[in-house]
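This section describes the prediction task in plain terms. A model, or a person checking by hand, is given the sequence of a single protein chain and must write out its three-dimensional structure as a string of tokens. No templates, partner chains or ligands are provided. The sample shown here is typical of the held-out split.
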Amino acid sequence: MSAIKKFGTFGGVFTPTLLTILGVIMYLRLGWVIGNAGLLGAWLIIIISFLITTCTALSMSSITTNIRIGSGGAYAIVSQSLGLEIGGSLGIPRYISQGLAVTMYIFGFREGWLFIFPHHNPFLIDVIVFVVLFGIAYKSANLAIRTQYIIMAIIVASLVSIVLAAFYGSMVYTTIDVTRWGSFTGSEGMGTDFWLVFAVFFPASTGIMAGANMSGELENPRKSILIGTMWAVAVSFAIYMILAFWIARSASETELLNNYNIMIDKSYFGPAIVAGVLGATFSSALASIIGSSRILQAMGDHKVIPKGDWLALRNKSGEPRNAMAVTGIMVFATMLMRDLNAIAPLVTMFFLITYTMINLVLIIEHNLGLISFRPTFKIHKTIPWIGLITSIAAMFIINPLLSLISILVVVAVYSILTKRDLNTPFEDVRSGLFVSFAEWAAKHASLFPDRQERAWKPKLLVPVTNPETVRGDFFFLEKIAGPKGSVKLMGIGNKEKSKELSANLLTLSQAFQKKGVFASWTVLKTDEFVQGIGLGIQALEGEFFKPNILFVNLYNSNESRTDLKTIIREAIQSNLGILIFAPHSKAGFGQTQTINVWIRDRSPSWKISWDVGNLDLSILLAYKLKVNWNAQIRLITVIEKEEEFEHAEQFMNSLMDLARLPKTETIVLTGNFLQNIANAPLADLNIFGTLEEPDFDFIDKMVKQTSSSCVFVRDSGFENVMA
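The expected answer:
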């Protein structure tokens, strides 16, 4: 097996980055920019453009010195920081846009070629250039890098031709004669403005990712991306500023506006400039096709896209041939479109979205304050903010509509990837982000009153000695807690059983998570069930997100009813709501269509107030099940005196209205409570209130008489059905 070729800073980063920045815009549009904006205006445009890319390059360099970056460049940076879903939502559009960029560079090469040979067939030129490009890239990145060395020599020669022209009289205007601030005449005198001219020039400065795209093939990516990118940016910035000065002193405003080939005409040796144009477009296309195939290979390696295993394959020398083949097909297909002017700005948009996300990643890392963020190259906190704000501003300055479209594309891809359940092979900062946000929220929430009735949601505490009992209650617990509540499994077992119990509770917790219910677990190593639960409840009182309901299955519990009473008393003292579940051995939950909520006789006072007694948790539980089961709630009360009927009915209707219970049936029965149980309409679940000291005989009787599963509820005092 041949060794995989690794590249250094000069060949792997500096060369492709510099050649991509020194592109066709430098040769064919810089004169037009100066003709419109004047020398000072052009310098300002160059400075703003490079300010955006320099801040992003600094942010990217800082991040890469803090992670072990893999293949994919910016895709790898974002994925390792914010997860595969966000990385993929940027990587997929960026890959496609890089493919479109290859096609545009091929078209640019064709225009330069037709300048020399105007009678050649345009499509044939495109095909030949594509075949040569693809052949070099498919053969190896090493061959591509060596080809770029030749192109760099050609571009240097073209710049030498400009320098010689300056010495031999091309600078015919003095500094005083040069237009310092242009009139923004526009093409054919139709007028333009500063930001439109900026939009034309800005893509020239967006090549800073060309070297980073080679991250998987660099000997030392931490060092090379930093040094190679920053040197390429610095050198190209100096070249653009000096070229702008030369062009401004070498041609009149009219010439600059109407002659895109002004650099060819004013140089010492025109063919050297033509060769530079061809070399610049060819090298940019070569860097883009190599970089895009590496992005595709990296996404395949992480299973972000279909056929990931096949796309991730490399040959013996480390070349991603399959990804390269797919990229070649995409590029050739876009070549057949012949005109990319309508979608060409999307390429710039996706570059800018990538810049935005890279700066955002560094801002997040800075503000989380995690000890894991220890970049060896540190920059001031204001730099990524400048990069973020200017990148977003540039998007909407260049094209507001396409900016929105490109953002929607990224969001759409993200929404698709979030449903794919991607397996991230590395740790990202999302956990730190959520933990920091939770800590911030907890600190601020602690300043509010304790009750927080509007923010109430079911957070169940489930004591477990035998995991089989929880499996039997799983469906019911999920429907009570889901989707925004939570389940805390508290295992009680001796040292011998604790390991097996831990494994079982972990499995159950993961099962709840798959159903969209947040679940956590712990095991208390003790032989004393009652004491263990008591200590556990006391310990949980110190938690911010502590449970608010104790759930007990009366018939699946291995403990005595005396012990259960002790546990319930402990829970009540700790302000926990009580939920005693008494399942019917045969009926189960029936058809999960109807829920009866029983309300005690409140005679002689049926006045309704903010505190409705031990009813809040019963109705909230019923409503939760109504939503998750798509069931019907029925409120029932039994009164002994018929003269209380109207008051009871009015109370029920007011309660239904204030509790916002839509389509709820209310029933008022008269006579003996126990006798009316049998006369009440059947339900799949019956909910009753219970006293602080539950009557287990009464519970048994209710299950039998209703022929259904029953729940016996006691409020904690922190619920309010009218909140």
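For orientation: The chain has a mean pLDDT of 86.
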